[in-house]
Structures are given as structure tokens and as C-alpha cells.
Design goal:
The protein has about 525 residues and is of the alpha+beta class. The chain contains 21 helices and seven strands. It has a five-stranded mixed sheet with strand order 1-4-7-6-5, sandwiched between helices. Helix 9 packs parallel to helix 17, helix 14 crosses helix 15 and helix 16 runs antiparallel to helix 17.
Length: about 525
């Protein structure tokens, strides 16, 4: 009887989950926006916009960052929502939520794939909780996939997608390039596409406008990047097999979130071998729609060459572009099944029912992504991403926010500066500042911190007491809270340490420095 009752229980239908899961994603993200403690890269973006009084200042402040201005511009126009970093986090929440809503509304994936993707590492954590410009690339590429059918009527929306991607981040150029190559290839090899497009009486004006918009925004984005061209280190050798394998490792990370140990040739080789099978499986699946294959291959080549010759990338946020390229390529292929070539029925490793059939591999990869994504989000509610917020709150609670503050290293203490909404004396700038000014700063040895404090006291003879804020690697070793050190002209008293941080470099230490007056 009990089993009969259980069998009569009806689970919610597909429509329920298609409403519930995106709403759950958005609600968790909103809580995250108010809970997540920003770290230095996030705070850098906020401070660049917050410290800019006009668009000219914004351009000057953003230029040394090495990134185009779009993200800073969006923060600039939204910064007064709350007048605090929460404004940026709410902006990021809106962009990330919009991307997922578009994904659920327009992508051709089944319920399982959508669910795994939504709560996966990149859309749920890296490009949703962590407030940086990568979410713009995710949103634009999803918009492109959802409006792909409009190419028969107008190219202007695609011109905007290409141009905005070029003004998002250097790696986003790979996605912009993929879109451009796909549309151009379609124009020349698909007479039906040209015929449908030219039915519009004003097609020539649309085409000219689209080309103008594309090249204007591309030039603007390129100009932003060329300002920091001197900081780019080209690969020392044109042929470097180990470096080639390291780049393969980035692609491997896009699939399974694992980067091989670059010091182990065996790890690099094994991951490169696995990556080749994953690539072949992907290509076998999407090649039925040639334009999807064109899009995937052009984006892959651009991104791979960029990683090889210009910049390898230093974190998951960077190899996430491979992931976005994979997902959007499959999206295009599945959305255009009516235009696909009939594939051969020959059975091989990559066809349906076999080990390397792509939908099965994609489910495995997305499951890994979801486990890691949910873990990172859950962990963020328990362990702050940075202790900068806690440090700032401690200073405010004690009423010390108006004291002279000497802080180093500038790149790391920017987090505390942003939450206190004030500038510190930064020895790297030899003056006041709140964020890393890459074009003006001087790199200092961390062991020379107290020497720089002495320079500060000589420079400001009226200052007899100041707060010393140090990040972990700059901290005074073996000096615990409550202990003191005495020098010829000043003393140092350790007040507190803040080590509850996910990022090791975002642990901070507070000291009081007091001048010894004879």
C-alpha cells in the first residue's frame, strides 16, 4: 500500500523547473551580491570608476589597467545607485542574471544540460559572484546565439556584439573574431542567405552601417589595448613544445576545470592527449552544421594563438573563454538542425552510443562544473573571498578611518581602501592613492617596508602616530597582536590580524606606528 502511494506522487513538470531554477539562480545571486567580499581585482574596477569625476578621468584612470573601457564605463554610470561597491555588484548581478535568462529562454539544450550549466563553475561562480568584466562576454555571446536567425534581415546587432566584445577584454577578441568570420563565411558560401538579406530594400545601408559600427568599435577597443603594449611579453621561441602543451592545458581546463602541472611533462602530455579526444568529439558533433564548425574553429585558433604568443592566462577566468566557445558552438549547431548536413552512419568512437559521443562527455564536464560551482558559492557564504571588508569594518568600528594610514602592497590593500572609501599613503606611488596605478608605480621590496615608514615620517614631521596596514607577504614576521618592536626613531605595535580569507594574499595585518620623541 505504501509503495502504491509513493508511485502516485507526481513530480513537477518541465515547465516548473524552467521557471523555478532560473529564479533560484537569481535569488542566490542577489544574496551573494550583498554577502560577497570583493578582492583586489574586483575592487580595482570599482575604484577606477569611483575616483573618476568625468569620462576623461575615467579614460585616463582605466588606461593602464590593460583592459578596454566598457566595464569601467558601466560601473561609472551605475556607481551612484548606492555610492558603495554594492552598486557594482548589483550591476554585475543584473548582467549575470540576464545571461542565464537568455540561456534558458533561447538555448536548445534539454532540461538536464540547462540545469547543470546554470549552476556550473563559470555562470554560477566565476562570472556571477566575482564582479568582473567577464560576465559581459558571457552575456554578449548568449545574445549572439539567440539572435543568430536575424542575420537574414540585418547585421547591425551582430556589429554591436563584435564591437562590444572587442571593448570588454583582450581574450574577448577571440569571440568577436569567431562571430565575424562566421558571418563573412556565411555571406560568401550561402547564396540563400544573401538572397534573403537583399530582399530588404535598404540592405546596402544596413550593410554599410554594420561595417562602420564594427570597425569603429574595433579600432576603439584596439586603441585601449595598445596603450599597454609595452607590458606584453612575446613568447621567446616560435617553436616551444612545452609551451604548446601548456596552452593545450588551458583548453583542457575549459572542459574539465583542471590545469596540468606545467613542471611535469607527463601531466602536460596526458592532458593534451585527453584534450585531443575532447576536441575531436566536439568537432564530430557540431560539424553537421558547417557554420557552427566555422565559428568554433576560428575562435579556437584565435584564442589558442593568443595564449601561445601573447598571454597564457593565470586563472580559470581566462580559460573560461574556451568553455564559452564550446557551449555557444553547440548552441548554434543544435539550433540549426534543419540546416545540418546528414552525417555518415558509420560507427566510431565519437558517434551515438559510444564512449566519446559528445553529449555524454558534455554531461560529464558540466557535472564537474556544477559540483565545483556549487561548492565555491556555498564556500563564499562561509569563508570571505577577502578579509579586506572585515579589516575596513574593524577600522571603522574603532573610529580610526580618519587616521593617517600607510599601506602596502598597493595592489593588495586596494580592497580595504575601497571599503573605507579613502586614500592611503602608498610607498609604491610615493604619495596618496587607492588602487594600483600601473603606469606610475614603483615596485618595492617587501623587506624594505619599515625603511619606507621611516621615509614617510621624515616626509611628514607633524605626523606622530599612524596606522600601518600590510598584506600578508609584507607583514612583519614573528610580531603577534599585542607585541611591539622599537627602532631608533619609531615604535611598532601589532594591533590585529585578519586571516579569514579565501585568497592568501588578501589577509591583512594592522599595526600602530608611533614616533619616538626625545
Amino acid at each position: 500500500m505504501e509503495f502504491k502511494r509513493i508511485n502516485q506522487i507526481q513530480l513537477p513538470d518541465k515547465n516548473f523547473y524552467e521557471i523555478f531554477l532560473p529564479i533560484l539562480f537569481i535569488v542566490i545571486g542577489l544574496f551573494g551580491a550583498f554577502n560577497h567580499a570583493l578582492w583586489r581585482d574586483e575592487m580595482q574596477g570599482w575604484l577606477v570608476a569611483w575616483q573618476s569625476d568625468n569620462l576623461i578621468d575615467l579614460w585616463k584612470n582605466n588606461a593602464p589597467s590593460g583592459h578596454p573601457i566598457l566595464w569601467s564605463l558601466l560601473i561609472y554610470f551605475s556607481k551612484n545607485i548606492t555610492g558603495t561597491p554594492i552598486s557594482m555588484q548589483l550591476l554585475h548581478w543584473v548582467l549575470g542574471s540576464s545571461a542565464i535568462l537568455i540561456f534558458w529562454r533561447f538555448s536548445p539544450f534539454n532540461l538536464l544540460t540547462k540545469s547543470l550549466f546554470t549552476f556550473g563553475y563559470f555562470p554560477f561562480w566565476e562570472y556571477f559572484f566575482v564582479s568582473r568584466h567577464y560576465v559581459i562576454a558571457e552575456l554578449i555571446i548568449f545574445i549572439f546565439c539567440s539572435i543568430y536567425h536575424l542575420k537574414e534581415r540585418t547585421y547591425i546587432p551582430f556589429a554591436l556584439c563584435i564591437g562590444l566584445l572587442a571593448n570588454t577584454q583582450a581574450l574577448s577578441w577571440s569571440l568577436a573574431f569567431a562571430i565575424g568570420i562566421t558571418l563573412v563565411f556565411d555571406w560568401f558560401v550561402n547564396p540563400q542567405q544573401r538572397e534573403n538579406y537583399m530582399r530588404n530594400k535598404k540592405w546596402i545601408y544596413d550593410l554599410i552601417s554594420s561595417i562602420t559600427i564594427t570597425f569603429s568599435l574595433l579600432c576603439f577597443g584596439a586603441f585601449s589595448l595598445f596603450q599597454v603594449r609595452d607590458s606584453v611579453e612575446l613568447v621567446s621561441s616560435f617553436l616551444d613544445f612545452r609551451h604548446f602543451l601548456r596552452v593545450c592545458g588551458q583548453l583542457f581546463g575549459g572542459y574539465v576545470l583542471i590545469i596540468p602541472d606545467s613542471s611535469s611533462f607527463f601531466d602536460l602530455s596526458l592532458c593534451a592527449l585527453i584534450t585531443s579526444f575532447l576536441l575531436l568529439s566536439t568537432i564530430t558533433f557540431i560539424k553537421r552544421y558547417p557554420l557552427s564548425l566555422t565559428y568554433f574553429f576560428s575562435g579556437l585558433v584565435f584564442l589558442f594563438l593568443f595564449n601561445y604568443f601573447l598571454y597564457l592566462g593565470i586563472g580559470s577566468r581566462h580559460y573560461g573563454y574556451y568553455f564559452l566557445l564550446i557551449i555557444s558552438s553547440v548552441w548554434l549547431s543544435k539550433s540549426n538542425q534543419d540546416q545540418q548536413f546528414i552525417s555518415s552512419s558509420d560507427q566510431n568512437l565519437f558517434t551515438k552510443g559510444n564512449l566519446f559521443y559528445f553529449p555524454g562527455l558534455l554531461t560529464v564536464c558540466l557535472t564537474i562544473h556544477m559540483v565545483v560551482g556549487v561548492h565555491m558559492v556555498f564556500n563564499d557564504f562561509l569563508l570571505p573571498y577577502s578579509s579586506g571588508k572585515e579589516t575596513a569594518q574593524y577600522i571603522q568600528a574603532n573610529g580610526w578611518q580618519d587616521f593617517p594610514i600607510f599601506a602596502t602592497r598597493d595592489v593588495e590593500v586596494a580592497t580595504v581602501s575601497g571599503y573605507l572609501d579613502r586614500e592611503f599613503y602608498l610607498p609604491e606611488l610615493n604619495g596618496l592613492g587607492s588602487y594600483a596605478q600601473w603606469a606610475n608605480r614603483v615596485t618595492l621590496e617587501r623587506t624594505k617596508t619599515l625603511d619606507e615608514v621611516q621615509v614617510y615620517l621624515e616626509k611628514f614631521p607633524k605626523v606622530n602616530k599612524l596606522l600601518l596596514l600590510l598584506s600578508k607577504r609584507s607583514a612583519i614576521k614573528n610580531l603577534e597582536p599585542g607585541e611591539s618592536l622599537y627602532f631608533d626613531k619609531f615604535s611598532v605595535f601589532a594591533d590585529s590580524k585578519f586571516e579569514n580569507s579565501f585568497h592568501d594574499s588578501e589577509k591583512f595585518y594592522l599595526y600602530w606606528v608611533e614616533r619616538i620623541i626625545d
